[in-house]
Structure formats: C-alpha cells, structure tokens
Description:
two-stranded antiparallel sheet
Amino acid sequence: MGILGWTWLFVGLTFSLYIGIAVWAKAATTGDFYVAEKAIHPIANGMATAADWMSAASFISMAGLISFMGRDGSMYLMGWTGGYVLLAMLLAPYLRKYGKFTVPEFIGDRYYSSGARVIALFCAIFVSFTYVAGQMRGVGVVFSRFLEVPVNTGVIIGMALVFFYTTMGGMKGITYTQVAQYCVLISAYLIPVIFISIMLTGNPVPQLAYGGTISAGGAEILGKASYQGQYLLDVLDGIQKDFGFGEYTAGKRAVVDVFFITIALMVGTAGLPHVIVRFFTVRKIRDARSSAGWALFFIALLYTTAPAVAAFARTNFILTVNDKSYANEAPAWFKNWESTGLIAWMDKNEDGIMQYRPGQAFAGKPRYAEGSGDSGERLLSNRPTASDNEIYIDRDIMVLANPEIAKLPNWVVALVAAGGLAAALSTAAGLLLVISASVSHDLLKGVLMPHMSERSELLWARSSAAVAVLIAGLFGIFPPGFVAQVVAFAFGLAAASFFPAIIMGVFSRKTTKEGAMCGMLAGITFTAGYIIYFKFINPAANVPENWWFSISPEGIGTLGMILNFVIMWAVSRVTKEPPQEIQDMVASLRYPASRD
C-alpha cells in the first residue's frame, strides 16, 4: 500500500476514535463542559495535559528548528520543559485549591474587580488565538502533503473535527480524546526515530544514539566508510563545515537573547490558560501535583528524543540534497514535498546537481498563493539571489519528511502524519475551550449576564466555540509564520500578562486590583507591540542590531514580564490595600487542608 493509502487508513481510524469518544463523553452540565466535573484521574490528566501542551510546535516544528539552529535550539527544550517545573511548584496546587473554572475568574475574584477579570479574559483570548494559529498551520502542512488535498480543504476538515468534539464533549470529551491523541502522537514520534537510530548507530535508544557513534551500516547509508566509529555529532559538525555552515554544536545567538527566550518560554508555559485549566479537572490538590508529575514524564518521552530527531534529520537531509548521484533530478521524497510549496530547488548554475549552501535561495521571502486551488501553499519567487544556495526548505517539514528521507516503510511515514494531526488538534481543542469559557463564563455569566441559566451558558459556550473555530480556520489558511515561531510569541504574551498576575495573586496579599490591571495591560501591550513591529510592520529591521538590549521578538516576553511585575508592585504601593477577606483568602491558598 502506498503512503496515501496508509495515511487515509491511519487518519480515518484515529478520527473515528476521537469522534466516538466525544459522543461517549457528551457534556450535560457546565461543570462537565468546563472542568469535566473535576473527576479525572491524575494519570489520565497528566497524559491529556501532555497532549494539550505538546502541540504542533513540539511535534512538527521544534526538532525542525533545532536541526537548523543547532545548539541554540536547546532554548526550546529548556524553556518548555522547565516551565512545567514552575507550573507544578508555583501554580497548579494553589489554583486547584481555589477551585473555580478559569484563570480570568481567579484573577477577577483575587483582585476583587470585574475590570481585572475582563482584562484577563481578553489576554486569554489574545494569547489563545496567537497559539491556535500555529496549530492550524500544522494541520495545513500535514494535509497538504500526506492527504494530497488543498490546504484549505485540510484546514476545514480539521476545523470540523475540533468543533465536533469540543462542543459535544467540552472538557470531559477533550480530556479523553487527548489521552487517545497522546498515544497516537508519541507512537508516531518514537517509532521513526527508533528505526533511524538503529540504522545509523545500531542503538535502538535515540537518547543514547544521539551521543553515540556511527555503525558500519550507518556509514554505508551515509556514503562514507570513514564515518564508522565516529561520534554522530562530530560527523554532523564536519558535514556542516564541508558545505559552508557553522558547526552544529556551536552557539550563534547572543547569550542574553538565548537566556531571555528560555525564560519567556518557561514562565509562558506556567501562564498559559489552556494548560492551567487542566489542573481544575482533578479532585484534590494532591492530584494536581501528581498530574503535573505525570505530565512531565509523558512530555519527557518526546522532548528527550527531539535532539536526536533533529540531528538525524539534518544529517540525512544535507547529504541527500547534496548527493551528486541525483543528476538533473531531485530525490523522490523531494518531489513529493515540492508540490506543497514547502521545499523548492532552482538550478542556478544549470549543472543539474542540487546544491544546499548557506544563504537565501530565492529573492524575497516565500509568499502565500492566491486563488482557490492553492491558497495557503508556499510559493517562491523565481528570481534567484547571488548566493550559491539552490534549495529553499520550510523548517516545519523536517520531522514530517524525515522518515521519507531515511527511506522508511510507507506505514511509518503515514503514522507520522497521523501523529502530527493529533498534536495539532489536541492543543487546538484545549485553546478553543479556553476561548469559549472566556466568552461564556467570564464575560457573559461573570460580567454582563450574571443571572444567566446553566442551560443558556452551555449554549453560549458552544456558540463561542463555533465562532472561535471559524477564526482559527482563517489562521490555518493565512498563517503568520513557522509553527514554533508563532507559538513562541504566544508563550511570550502569556509570560508578560498572566504569569505576574497569578504569582502575585497567590504569594502577595498586598497586591491591589489597580496594580494587577496596570501590570497586565502594560506587559501585554509592550510585548505585543514589540512583536508586531519587528515581525509585521517593519520586518526588514528585525536584526540583532535593532533589537532592544539584543533581545529578539521571541524573547521580549521576559522583558514584558519584568515590566508587568515592576508596574504591579509600584501601583500597589500607592493604592488602597485589598480588603481583609481577600488577604485572608490569599493566605489560605498557600496552606492546603490536611485531607488533601
């Protein structure tokens, strides 16, 4: 069976499973819809949390970025996993003890202000839509290649599925669907890399093979007998230098920028609303801590493997596209991906041989096509640049194309497609539920229509989810950037808005509503403005020489967070203290009851 047949089989089976779970777990109450009646087992919640958090950025784009960035890409690994330590220690147990449905609800009650709640819910919506853009982009990439349908069609299919099990099952349905999606995505991620690990090093454990030596069979695959016995990373460093790239293991970014990006990703993880709400779905505070621990374990299975995926993919890719045996034509896998517009070759010197070198292959940046047939696909200018590079490659395809480059069986290639869809759809569902809850529970029920019945609230929640799905679909058709890049912006925005308000809300009795509101507004406005300017208004200026303190847009969330903390503290010092009952409530949050 070919790749297309296997892909339709795997996607059909997994989609049927997700729909079946949604029907089985239909939400009947708002408690079911928002927090699954707080009845999820810690292990299941940990697995669902891992799927919710390990989005298309983790599955599709992270290893791709590392494969191009080398050592600097470790900031994604450190930031996203380190954030879970913060989440488990500083936030999850206390927010679970508070016991309400949403983060804006906590902020509204803690800061005794509907205004603070409204600001928080708009921050939640803004961050969630920024994040969901990356997920819809991932869905489009997978569908455009593996199911051979237009990107628009693929996004619409993904939208329909997410809409069904989000509105049907709410948090209850999403939780059990995400358990299934985690099993799919982790299998799809590990099986190909184990295959390649054995092929190149003879070691079936990718985490060990990453620091191991090339086997005799691996040297034959790579086309050079002298590679046998050499360390994989030494071989990759040598290959990079041979073709004009810097050493893979050498850092290239400014240390301050790496530090700021890592911190933004860490605190952004701890402040993401769709992750935090997962800890409201368990019975006790102790279960919230246990869920965080299980989530770390399930996340580590993928994250400790990502560096090996990146190294294997980079090695195979460079050697394949520079293989002179492919005279006058590209390899089969290259042709398969070329139709998506995500990779392209222009024979600048007309020698019939592909050349992948440093530098831009085409004049200008890739743009998106217009028209019904190919809308959303990458198109490249046909004007070459002065560089020797003849290859354009979108970083988001490295993980998905890796099994094809390594010539793995068709069923493995198809499994990766199903895993990429599971990763994107699981996170998209969690984000859409946050948006839905922000509108129906925080804005309508909490502020505008406090006497709304539970039935009406559930109807509004489902209607809000429908609108959110449509907007998310537009992001899938017109994505603003690489998946991990867009998601990094979402983490920066979460770091600059939610994290300080939650931390100060739990650990500082004296922080006032005025301080919280001013801090959140200042943090998210500054961070969003910096990102929008350099990424969308004036992208030509997006170079280290123009960045403030050498901090890139991906890392500016850390500075926004600091600004938020400073303004919150300063305003709280000159405004009236919170009421005594609020101060008592804050104190009680930090002392779990003995039964928990």
